[in-house]
Amino acid sequence: MDFNDTQEEAAFRAEAAAWLKANVPTPDELAGLDDIAAAKLWQKRKYDAGWACIRWEKQYGGREATAIEQVIWNQEEAKFNTPGGVFVIGQGMAAPTLMTWGKPEHHERFLPKLASGEEIWCQLFSEPAGGSDLAALRTKAERDGDDWVINGQKIWTSGAHYSDYGILVVRTDPNVAKHKGLSYFFLDMKSPGVEIKPIKQLTGGANFNEVYFTDVRIPDSQRLGEVGQGWQVALTTLMNERAAIGGGGAGVNVDVAYRIASEVMIDDKPAIEDSAVRAKLADWYVQESGLRFTGYRSMTAMSRGEIPGPENSIGKLVGAPKTQEMASFCMDLLEMSGAIWDEKLSTEAGLLQLTYMGAPGGRIAGGTDEIMANIIAERVLGMPQEPRMDKGMAFSEVPTGSN
Amino acid sequence: MNFEFSEEQELLREQARGFLTEHCPPAAVRAVLDGDADYDPALWQRIVEMGWTATVIPEEFGGLGLSYLELVVIAEELGRAVAPVPFSSSVYLATEALIACGSQEQKDKWLPLLAAGEAIGTFALSEGNGRPSVKSLTTRMDQAGLNGRKLPVADGRAADFAIVVGASDAGDGASWYLVELDQVGVSREAVRTLDFSRGHAVIEFNNAKAELLGGEGAGWSATERLLDRAAVLFAWEQVGLADAAMIQARDYAMGRYAFGRAIASYQAIKHKLANMYVKNTLARSNCYYGAWALNTDSAELPLAAATARVGAIKAAVFAAEENVQTHGGMGFTWEFDCQFYYRRAKLLGVNVGSEGYWQDRLITAYEQNNAA
After folding, report:
1. Is the peptide bond before A399 cis (omega within 30 degrees of 0)?
2. For chain B, is the Cβ count within 10 Å smaller at the N or the C terminus?
């Protein structure tokens, strides 16, 4: 156990830091660019210099870095305010799935453009009737020559409106049990018959969508895994999703809360001198620190050849509610003006209010708190699965509600 | 960077766990809990023979000269086994205090005895209700000797000597005194704590013979440093305990049926267990940080120790409480072993400073780190 860099790691850190210092886009360079254009500019710059997706094979744009080097890179990049976010699904979820289940020609065609940020991917899994019970999805695919014809509807698809490709799970056989009738594809989001409708969120923003499929044709060559093996392929994606979303240290964290507690007063003394405030901040520090070192421990395990497992669910399960609690607590510290959500008037330019309003989404997306707790209980602690009324039934026989 | 124990340390863990499974079964804990003894002398003798008391003592003083990474592995296993022995008092506190502040002569005399288990030491800080502070100390040395009253002192009757924190007019306002406890100036009486498996005492000093340990007026800063170091070691015991309580709850829930199904299949129980796992995992990862900081004597030790300690208190107390709850009525009986964890978790939760004390220390250390 050694929390310090080895000589090689220190050299790597210095190299990364020097490159970042010289190359992180200046505000002038980003002026006038929208979020996606800014993210693409930064991603392409990293790619051209060999700093994109650094763990990937060199031929696909990576530098075959170790898991620990990835940690170091993330630490160094986090010291700067860099544009990003839109590549998480493509690089963090679609790419590992392509690597595990795709053919060499898929790798050559898609991985470099995922690394360079030229192509953005989205994830078409959830449906109105298949949320926590993802395998209950109904969008169907029927074979027609060398193609599959897709009909149905997906929902909660982040970034569908700006994505080039999507990963898609569909039902290819309704007459076998739920999990056995699924297959996994990827498709061009510009395919005829794909219709995207934005969903307005309670934050007022509209980052995710409903996606409708009407006789959309996908070539069989874009299937990942065997017909009927879609659930297994989807699990690869989901396992990486939990690792990719992780603890979510961004937004309101202890540093922000500490700053606010130092500025606002309780009984004419800085709030940070109040023992109840100190206790709260200490508890959140313990959670942040615990998640950080839990992540590092998985990195060490991975560098020893272990595969990330269901224990990765802990990051989201702790991080999402913590973010909500912290934003709420910090607004309480502001007392009556905590309600103000105005970039000019609000402390931290409205970060608390934005975070609080967005927090319910964090606790639901990518597996709800409740599903995460089930995963830990079942897959880590070996406790029984939930009773399944549809077990062994053909999917077409499974009872459904009106919603 | 490497965030795991070495293969040798994992082997030590296996060996320690096997040893304690054999020599510290629940029946051994129960014997002390039910009886009048302050600890299990046979188990203690075996632990000494394993060399555990000598772990970090330098070889020149008869120790093994191993690192704190080995000691935390042993601490975790002792916590898991709820071992009824004076290990924490003698090793995490008395031995650490001597290594940190002892004169050559004091080290020459006591460290070989501690390593060989021929002496048991303890640390006496608390004088009663409330958070100990320099101002609250009434124990004091004068011409005639040391006078005052300390309670509770863990292993106060089992110990051969105590390191006593007394008031001082010099320096930071406190000094450490090494006091041999078998003398006319010292009277000891057993005091019952909520953990019947661990002996505690009230110790009164009446003109007791005592010698300074460390500098006059350097005792309060030495106390804070000692507590930082001990906090990491206690935290590892707490994490071991939390893990054991979680496993006990899980196993019981798997075998107990209600309404035609194992209670482990109900979400109320599954989510309770998942919550234990989350708390235990965060605490454990923070304990890694603490272990590293302790082992390297890092400037981050105060922050790392407080972080490890706060997380470990929460994890152990939660797992112990909810383990009883998961067992239902049987968990509340004397007959079931759930009480071992419940008692020990709360004892460990206050014995080197409460959650509130360490939360405050954490934020203070965070402020100091940011200022540096």
Report:
1. no
2. C
Q: How many CB atoms lie within 10 A of CB A101?
A: 18
Q: Tell me which H or E stretch contains A168.
A: strand A165-171
On whether residue A388 sits in a domain, the answer given is no
Instruction: Give A203's DSSP letter.
Output: T
* Residue B209, phi then psi, degrees to nearest 5: -70, 130
Residue of B nearest to A259 (CA): B367
Helix, strand counts (H, E) of chain A: 13, 10
- Residue A284: which of B250, B359, B356, B84 has the closest Cα? B359
Nearest Cα residue to B178 out of B160, B191, B153, B196: B160
- Quote the CA–CA distance of A102 and A96 in Å, as a whole number: 9
Helices B26-34 and B338-350 cross at an angle (nearest 10°) of: 70
- Tell me the pTM: 0.94
Last residue of a domain, one of B187, B216, B245: B216
ipTM of the shown complex = 0.96
Number of domains in chain A: 3
Last residue of a domain, one of B154, B187, B216: B216
Separation CA B20–CA A178 (nearest Å):
48
The answer to whether residue B327 sits within a structural domain is: yes
- On chain A, the residues whose CB falls within 8 A of the CB of B355 are 279
pLDDT tens digits, one per residue of B185-220? 999 999 999 999 999 999 999 999 999 999 999 999
Inter-chain CB proximity B274 and A373 less than 8 Å: yes
Shared domain check, A319 and A203? no
